[in-house]
């Protein structure tokens, strides 16, 4: 777009308003009834109240654990749920983002981790960024992609929006929302028909190829063009580039996972790596870029309902026995409820108390009005956070924690499975206490005498029960500036990539090979029709973070509050200009938001973020339909209509 074209889209009227600023929590807050205001309390009083609230709801308890906080904190939090409260009902924000990646990768390879390392991206030939806006959401990783491009790699972007990431791509495949399986199957079919299958790899490392070939056979390029909206030749070009590359990386994020069939989407992408052998080798791999800084670690530490620390299956009797003797407890041989199921259990009254650590579900859950109603219906809600979030405002007790970043010692694990030390560099405000310290104090009140001298003591307890982490002492983490799991030995480091075993001979015959995923195209649940003609997808911007709690406090000319973004054609069709407020309505609810015009969108597609829920609560619009395997909601596909509020556009003020 030229500068003069851009000028047509300068904002007029309201600018979306200054985002809300949150202040740090410095003291415990309590109240006797939900309609009363909070009052400051001593730690003694607050923790006694929490202990009573949890005790009376034993058997109806769930914990949300914090993916912003350290591994050590997540280890203690899940141990609290399992040992003190006797439940596997523990989960985190992984449910809202990458649970389908973990489920899909585990189904194919037995392990949910991304298979390659950031460094490998610099030494690859083809990078596919599928449903991922890494330029905004994973800027550190994206630096490695840019280095790869400088070294000659070709990048392809598969995203309904021409994002800032797509601007760097050789080719942008702007598909219709929710048509990724159609696209992947057409790529698979093209690879097969062009004779580009890595036959030796398929033969020894995979199972189910014949069924897969039959599955994708109807997906001709022209059918895929009709369904996805992407020209057949662009799909063909991607198929050939990916299959012919010596090394190729397939990276994806929420554009793939936040759908009612997120796990199927992930399986459809994994199939392409299995066809071509682009996995289990240096430079070739599958990379779901994880969301919050320690969501990988939270899952690895067992803050999920189906795995004990070290991603060990609760249903494995040997695993249970190991933890039973390490923790001196009894571990039930069943999975707990995930975050989505816990919200459903609030509805039917079987979950009555929640301990929410560093999560803001009142604003981050799909169909937020319903989520708030369910949280309000709890008998007891305790929120442990660093800010007074909207969720905290619903609580009976609020506990002020230190921030996992810069105020706490410990470790976190990034998307390439690298465990790194974090350190306390700043003194926490007021009476804020470390998450672990608070949990141990509470465990004591509920009859469990837990003493950890420091974070390293927690880490060493984890190392004793998790083979993948066993070799990572704090000293070694320091020496190597972080170590990737698996690291079973204290005197050796493993390769930077996973699943090298797939290149051993004849795995298929020994039953350890990776199965192709037999998954079918299934369009979004919330259909567009005459009443709701626009497809809304939601996501992120560079300048803000998630529910805005942690980025609310900083002012920047980049931060422009919430807008509903439309393409120029739709803005013209509705007769609206940038800055003009419109009503946005879905089958769940309605919000008023100013318009922004983005030339990266196409007719019929709108975009909003989740960053400014105090001003515009986007999640009142989103649908709670979720993936039956992973529980992740379809944040990426709602149907909406846009209504003009005034007949006349507001006068141009405030032009930037
Ligand atoms: N600046 C910033 N960085 C962040 C965050 C933040 O809030 N702000 N949050 C962090 C967290 S928790 C996470 S999980 C990650 C998320 O990181 P991303 O997943 O990269 O971020 P999103 O913007 O949610 O979604 C990615 C893309 O999916 C596309 N998309 C939508 N529907 C579809 C579809 O049907 N198919 C395909 N192929 N693509 C589709 C959207 O257009 C969008 O560009 O970011 C992390 N990093
Ligand atoms: N419409 C829409 N909705 C979405 C998404 C989307 O793409 N579209 N994405 C979903 C995704 S991927 C995610 S991850 C969720 C995010 O949803 P949430 O995790 O609910 O939102 P955050 O704003 O990241 O909340 C993190 C909280 O942790 C607190 N915190 C930070 N550090 C610490 C610490 O060390 N200790 C404690 N106790 N607290 C701490 C912060 O103050 C903040 O309140 O939103 C989901 N919702
Ligand atoms: Mo996330």
Description:
By secondary structure, the chain is α/β, with parallel strands linked by helices. The protein has three domains: 134 residues, Barwin-like endoglucanases, CATH 2.40.40.20; 229 residues, 3-Layer(aba) Sandwich (Rossmann fold), CATH 3.40.50.740; 191 residues, Dimethylsulfoxide Reductase, domain 2. It is built from 24 helices and 25 strands. It has a seven-stranded mixed beta sheet with strand order 2-1-15-14-13-3-4. A six-stranded mixed beta sheet has the order 21-23-22-25-20-24. Strands 7-6-5-9-10 form a five-stranded parallel beta sheet, sandwiched between helices. The C terminus is likely disordered. The structure holds ligand MGD (2 copies) and molybdenum atom (MO). One ligand MGD binds next to α6, α13 and β20. Keywords: Iron, Iron-sulfur, Metal-binding.
């Amino acid at each position: 777009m030229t500068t003069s074209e851009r000028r047509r889209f300068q904002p007029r009227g309201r600018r979306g308003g200054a985002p809300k600023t949150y202040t740090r929590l410095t003291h415990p807050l309590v109240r006797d009834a939900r309609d009363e205001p909070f009052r400051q309390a001593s730690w003694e009083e607050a923790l006694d109240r929490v202990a009573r609230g949890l005790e009376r709801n034993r058997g109806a308890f769930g914990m949300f654990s914090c993916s912003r906080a350290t591994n050590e904190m997540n280890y203690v939090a899940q141990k609290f749920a399992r040992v003190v409260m006797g439940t596997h009902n523990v989960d985190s924000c992984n449910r809202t983002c990458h649970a389908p990646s973990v489920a899909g990768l585990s189904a194919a390879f037995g392990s949910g981790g991304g298979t390659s390392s950031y460094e490998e991206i610099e030494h690859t030939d083809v990078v596919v960024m599928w449903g991922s806006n890494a330029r905004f959401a994973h800027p550190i990783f994206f630096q490695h992609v840019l280095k790869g491009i400088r070294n000659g790699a070709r990048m392809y972007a598969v995203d309904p929006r021409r994002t800032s990431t797509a601007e760097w791509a050789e080719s942008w495949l702007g598909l219709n929302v929710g048509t990724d399986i159609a696209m992947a199957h057409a790529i698979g079919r093209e690879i097969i028909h062009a004779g580009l299958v890595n036959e030796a790899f398929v033969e020894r490392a995979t199972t189910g190829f014949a069924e897969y070939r039959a599955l994708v056979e109807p997906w001709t390029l022209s059918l895929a063009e009709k369904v996805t909206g992407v020209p057949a030749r662009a799909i063909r070009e991607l198929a050939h580039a990916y299959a012919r590359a010596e090394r190729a990386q397939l990276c994806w994020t929420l554009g793939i996972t936040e759908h009612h069939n997120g796990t199927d989407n992930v399986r459809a992408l994994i199939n392409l790596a299995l066809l071509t052998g682009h996995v289990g080798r240096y430079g070739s791999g599958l990379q779901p870029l994880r969301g919050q800084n320690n969501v990988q670690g939270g899952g690895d530490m067992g803050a999920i309902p189906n795995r004990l620390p070290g991603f060990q299956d609760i249903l494995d009797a040997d695993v249970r026995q190991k933890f039973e003797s390490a923790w001196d407890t009894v571990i039930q041989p069943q999975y707990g409820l995930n975050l989505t199921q816990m919200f459903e259990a609030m509805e039917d009254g079987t979950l009555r108390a929640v301990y929410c650590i560093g999560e803001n579900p009142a604003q981050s859950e799909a169909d937020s009005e319903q989520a708030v109603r369910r949280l309000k219906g709890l008998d007891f809600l305790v929120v442990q956070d660093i800010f007074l979030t909207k969720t905290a405002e619903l609580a009976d007790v609020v506990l002020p924690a230190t921030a996992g970043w810069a105020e706490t010692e410990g470790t976190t694990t990034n998307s390439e499975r690298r465990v790194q030390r974090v350190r306390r560099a700043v003194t926490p405000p007021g009476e804020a206490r470390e998450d672990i310290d608070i949990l141990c104090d509470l465990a004591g009140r509920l009859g469990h005498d837990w003493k950890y001298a420091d974070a390293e003591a927690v880490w060493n307890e984890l190392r004793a029960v998790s083979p993948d982490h066993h070799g990572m002492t704090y000293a070694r983490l320091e020496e190597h500036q972080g170590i990737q799991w698996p690291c079973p030995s204290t005197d050796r480091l493993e390769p930077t990539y996973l699943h090298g075993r797939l290149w051993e001979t004849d795995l298929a015959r020994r039953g350890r090979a990776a199965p192709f995923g037999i998954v079918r195209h299934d369009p979004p649940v919330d259909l567009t029709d005459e009443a709701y003609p626009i497809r809304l997808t939601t996501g992120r911007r560079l300048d803000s973070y998630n529910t805005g709690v942690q980025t609310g406090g900083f002012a920047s000319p980049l931060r422009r509050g919430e807008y509903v973004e439309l393409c120029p054609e739709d803005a013209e069709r509705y007769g609206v200009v940038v800055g003009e407020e419109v009503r946005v309505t879905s089958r769940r609810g309605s919000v008023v938001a100013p318009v922004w015009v983005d030339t990266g969108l196409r007719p019929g597609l709108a975009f909003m973020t989740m960053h400014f829920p105090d001003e515009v609560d986007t999640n009142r619009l989103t649908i709670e339909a979720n993936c039956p395997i992973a529980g992740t909601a379809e944040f990426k596909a709602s149907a909406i209509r846009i209504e003009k509020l005034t007949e006349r556009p507001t006068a141009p003020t405030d032009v930037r």
